[in-house]
Structure formats: C-alpha cells, structure tokens
Design goal:
Elements (H helix, E strand, L loop, with lengths): L13 H9 L16 H11 L8 H9 L1
C-alpha cells in the first residue's frame, strides 16, 4: 500500500475534501491526522493576538510575578 499526505490550511473544508478523496477509485481508506500546535506556534499566535507584556526591567517583572 502507498500513502499520500495532503496538507490542508482551511480546516472548514476538511469534511468535503475527505469525502472527495474517498470517492477516488483505488482509495481504501481516508484517515485524519491533525498536527498539534508546538509551543513556538502558540507563542507566535500570542504575539499576533497581542497577548504580550512589556517591562522596563527584570526587577519590574519579578515584582509583578511576586504580586
């Protein structure tokens, strides 16, 4: 058996794409393997969403953490 990997950006179309691939002659199964977000992916997402903090010094950060 040979496997074909297809990467999909728009997950809203996932069901239709999966159904279309299963209709192709010779396809025995269609399985879904979602890619987990890495910590780097989550960090970039935080930056893009503005979930970042800025401190003037390390002492200010430590004071904030300690409460």
């Amino acid at each position: 058996m040979t496997q074909l990997t297809v990467s999909i950006e728009d997950v809203s179309m996932l069901d239709q794409i999966k159904q279309a691939i299963s209709l192709i002659r010779g396809v025995s199964s269609v399985t879904l393997k979602r890619r987990r977000k890495t910590s780097m992916d989550r960090a970039i997402e935080d930056i893009e969403q503005g979930r970042v903090y800025k401190y003037d010094s390390l002492d200010d950060l430590i004071k904030e953490i300690e409460g």
